[in-house]
């Protein structure tokens, strides 16, 4: 193997890897065998163009100064150090970097990555979808796949090739700051939605100019960190990791996901970055993942500086690679470390070869060497329409006492609506995390149209029916002193109905923003209480990144609508829902606690046997997983199976009658849970195993059929093996996860 770039310059280069008619594996082999050690190390580097330096005043740190890479630094990284990937680059810098890559000996294009996690949202003006948490409440696989497709087209139009999405973390402790980025709390639902969006991003097989590499993250059990504190240890056994957290990643691999990102945290004391069992053995060997693994931000160096399992960067770099990571996100020092490790014989070059091969194979599979920017207009009509449709399915109606909603359209002429609350007219809170407002560095530039704040949407739709809308903010989310409650009450005096838009804000969601207290913050609670005191119908709209503890709202509001971070069309859809233009059909993908101290309150817990509640709080969730009301109602009956006994490997086929017993056509999300009645290890009270979104006309009945392979009814036994254990199972079918609304039927798996 030749390690000296100068010598390699003299060797005739076999450029046949540039021949696109050759298979990706062959192209990879031809290229890899000609690479110097430096060129290989460079391919493993992912570089950020954004620098954040601490700012000091009078010796005290007061914030950050952000700057971009200089021309010299860019040149050094691409030409001299062969950098294989960059992240968070937008605009002309992409072209500058890519043209530099074409001046190198091997002309390997740079792979650009970005966090386009709910649309191409770091690009102001692109289509901004509901957050992952919001879109997960749609349970709409086709809509979520389409969100991936639209995002892929818009990201590819900027010459970017890779999105660090989807997040497949399981959000069970809602104090965690990154709940908004997840698809909720259920492994099955997360796996299905994750696979759908991956197929959308990657255009099924990575073909075409508008395909985007997906990245399943953060491998694994990252959301389960101690106390909901981001990046702390996840106190789990390997069996538990397999039982709860592996399923979404397994499905992502099956869906062909091109890349996986390792999480920041440790599991049972071993950082995931350094965990050979989890990364190399389970992900790569057992699940057969053929793409490449990228670390999270500076994970390698954190093994030294934070997690203290390596003495220096040399040791950390070797650990990271040996464990099975292929690309180093923003640990620039690992470039020199890799070269030194191989030169001094401390690391077998075969580790580098494997990692480089995986990265190059992915580049070839994507067609990167031939790729041009997709010719797509961002936020075009079709993209906006796909966004609007998904948003319509994502809102969850949590309360509707005495059928207050929808507001009577025929009587709406002259209806006076008072809109209040800190999130009524705040596009930043509505968009949530990972947009141009927050990344790659905090900005306060105005959002480009089209978008509708909640206020604007109510105005827009209300005006169609002759309603008038007045607005007053009323209070602040972060500051309990900043109250304008008396003025809010004055406004309400002349109104017929109150819409109070409350929740949380960007400062309360995201990395470094875990919360110990999930109550409404600032002066929101006193504002709501004052509004309630006015005696007018009170509709509470929630704009928030995570479930909040809102028992007062449940008890006191006449109607409650959960929107989470709903993106560009949140306001418009709210208007449509208030006036019955859209019938709400979303269901919660995550449970709400009564109280922060009740966390975690996820539905699929294992049984306990000393009492069924806290002595001072209920045991059950305030709003449970799968829950959501409609303007119509659905009646379930006649749950039946094609047979009651199955051999392992057969497929269970169930049928249930669902009647739309109300007056409006709508969609219902039929949910299927099972309980393994007796098993070698304990299993949850219930686990989601299938669902179907079905459209049923008012007054009509529909026989809904669902098939589930019996191999899905597995347990992870005491030896950590995935097995189906023969015996009796309880099948439960209905509109949400509460016992009292589920039809039940027992079946058996035979020996
Ligand atoms: C986050 C990742 C993200 C990466 C790049 C990290 O801090 O944990 O989710 O993809 O930054 O922005």
Task: Describe this entry's structure for a reader.
With 751 residues, the protein is of the alpha/beta class. Helix content is 29%, strand content 20%. The protein has 21 helices and 28 strands. It has a six-stranded mixed beta sheet with strand order 13-18-17-16-14-15, sandwiched between helices. The chain has a five-stranded parallel beta sheet with strand order 6-5-4-1-12. Strands 20-28-27-22-23 form a five-stranded mixed beta sheet. A hairpin with a 2-residue loop joins strand 9 (266-267) and strand 10. It is globular, with a radius of gyration of 27 Å. The N and C termini lie far apart (56 Å). Bound molecules: beta-D-glucopyranose (BGC).
Could you give the topology of this structure?
Elements: H1 5-10, H2 24-32, H3 37-43, E1 45-48, E2 50-57, E3 60-68, H4 71-80, E4 85-87, H5 92-101, E5 111-114, H6 132-136, H7 141-157, E6 162-163, H8 187-202, E7 215-219, H9 238-254, E8 259-262, E9 266-267, E10 270-271, H10 276-286, E11 292-295, H11 299-305, H12 313-323, E12 328-329, H13 334-343, H14 349-365, H15 381-394, E13 396-400, E14 416-420, H16 427-431, H17 454-464, E15 468-472, H18 485-493, E16 497-503, H19 524-532, E17 538-543, H20 551-556, E18 559-562, H21 570-578, E19 634-641, E20 645-647, E21 651-660, E22 666-676, E23 687-696, E24 701-709, E25 715-716, E26 722-723, E27 727-734, E28 743-750
Parallel strand pairs: 1-4, 1-12, 4-5, 5-6, 7-8, 8-11, 14-15, 14-16, 16-17, 17-18, 20-28
Antiparallel strand pairs: 2-3, 9-10, 13-18, 19-21, 21-24, 22-23, 22-27, 25-26, 27-28
Bound molecules: beta-D-glucopyranose (BGC).
């Amino acid at each position: 193997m030749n390690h000296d770039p100068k010598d390699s310059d003299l060797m005739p280069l076999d450029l046949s890897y540039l021949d696109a008619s050759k298979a990706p594996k062959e192209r990879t082999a031809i290229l890899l065998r000609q690479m110097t050690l430096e060129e290989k190390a460079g391919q493993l580097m992912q570089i950020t163009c954004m620098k954040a330096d601490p700012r000091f005043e009078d010796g005290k740190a007061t914030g950050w100064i952000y700057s971009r890479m200089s021309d010299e630094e860019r040149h050094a990284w691409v030409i001299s150090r062969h950098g294989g990937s960059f992240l968070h680059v937008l605009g002309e810098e992409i072209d500058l970097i890519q043209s530099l890559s074409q001046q190198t000996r091997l002309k390997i294009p740079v792979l650009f990555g970005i966090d386009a996690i709910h649309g191409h949202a770091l690009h102001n003006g692109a289509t901004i979808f509901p957050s992952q948490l919001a879109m997960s409440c749609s349970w709409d696989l086709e809509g979520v796949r389409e969100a991936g497709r639209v995002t892929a087209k818009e990201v590819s139009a900027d010459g970017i090739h890779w999105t660090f999405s989807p997040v497949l973390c399981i959000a069970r402790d809602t104090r965690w700051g990154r709940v908004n980025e997840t698809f909720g709390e259920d492994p099955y639902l997360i796996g299905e939605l994750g696979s759908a969006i991956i197929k959308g991003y990657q255009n099924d097989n990575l073909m075409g100019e508008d395909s985007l590499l997906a990245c399943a993250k953060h491998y694994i059990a990252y959301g389960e960190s101690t106390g909901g504190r981001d990046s702390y240890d996840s106190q789990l056994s390997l069996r538990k990791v397999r039982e709860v957290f592996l399923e979404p990643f397994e499905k992502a691999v099956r869906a062909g996901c091109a890349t996986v990102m390792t999480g920041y945290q440790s599991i049972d004391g071993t950082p995931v970055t350094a965990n050979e069992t989890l990364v190399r053995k389970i992900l790569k060997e057992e699940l057969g993942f053929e793409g490449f693994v990228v670390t999270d931000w500076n994970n390698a160096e954190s093994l030294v500086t934070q997690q203290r399992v390596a003495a220096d960067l040399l040791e950390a770099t070797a650990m990271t690679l040996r464990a099975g990571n292929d690309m180093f996100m923003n640990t620039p020092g690992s470039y020199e470390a890799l070269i030194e490790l191989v030169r001094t014989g401390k690391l077998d070059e075969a580790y580098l070869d494997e990692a480089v091969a995986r990265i190059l194979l992915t580049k070839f599979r994507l067609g990167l060497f031939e790729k041009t920017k997709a010719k797509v207009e961002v936020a075009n009509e079709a993209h906006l329409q796909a966004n609007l449709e998904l948003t319509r399915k994502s809102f969850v109606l949590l309360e509707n006492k005495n059928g207050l909603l929808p507001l009577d359209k025929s009587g709406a002429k002259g209806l006076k609506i008072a809109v209040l609350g800190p999130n009524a007219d705040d596009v930043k809170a509505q968009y949530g995390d990972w947009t141009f407002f927050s990344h790659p560095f905090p900005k306060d530039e105005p959002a480009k149209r089209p978008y509708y704040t909640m206020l604007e949407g109510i105005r827009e739709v209300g005006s169609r029916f002759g309603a008038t809308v007045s607005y007053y903010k009323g209070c602040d989310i972060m500051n309990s002193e900043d109250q304008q409650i008396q003025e809010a009450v004055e406004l309400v005096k002349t109104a017929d109905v109150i819409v109070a838009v409350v929740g949380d804000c960007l400062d309360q969601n995201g990395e470094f923003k875990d919360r110990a207290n999930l109550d409404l913050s600032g002066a929101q609670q006193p504002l709501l209480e004052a509004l309630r005191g006015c005696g007018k119908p009170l509709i509470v709209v929630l704009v928030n990144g995570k479930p909040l503890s809102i028992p007062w709202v449940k008890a006191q509001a006449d109607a409650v609508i959960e929107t989470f971070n709903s993106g560009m069309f949140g306001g418009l859809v709210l208007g449509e829902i208030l006036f019955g233009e859209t019938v709400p059909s979303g269901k919660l993908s995550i449970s709400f606690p009564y109280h922060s101290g009740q966390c975690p309150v996820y539905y699929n817990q294992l049984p306990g046997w000393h009492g069924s509640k806290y002595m001072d709080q209920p045991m059950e969730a305030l709003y449970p997983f799968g829950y959501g009301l409609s303007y119509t109602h659905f009646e379930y009956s006649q749950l039946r199976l094609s047979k009651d006994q199955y051999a392992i490997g057969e497929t269970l086929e169930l049928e249930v009658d669902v009647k739309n017993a109300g007056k409006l056509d709508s969609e219902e999300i039929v949910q299927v849970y099972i309980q393994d009645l007796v098993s070698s290890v304990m299993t949850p009270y219930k686990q989601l195993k299938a669902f179907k979104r079905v459209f049923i006309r008012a007054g009509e009945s529909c026989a809904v059929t669902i098939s589930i392979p019996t191999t899905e009814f597995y347990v992870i036994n005491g030896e950590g093996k995935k097995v189906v254990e023969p015996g009796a199972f309880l099948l439960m079918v209905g509109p949400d996860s509460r016992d009292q609304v589920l039809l039940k039927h027992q079946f058996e798996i035979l020996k």
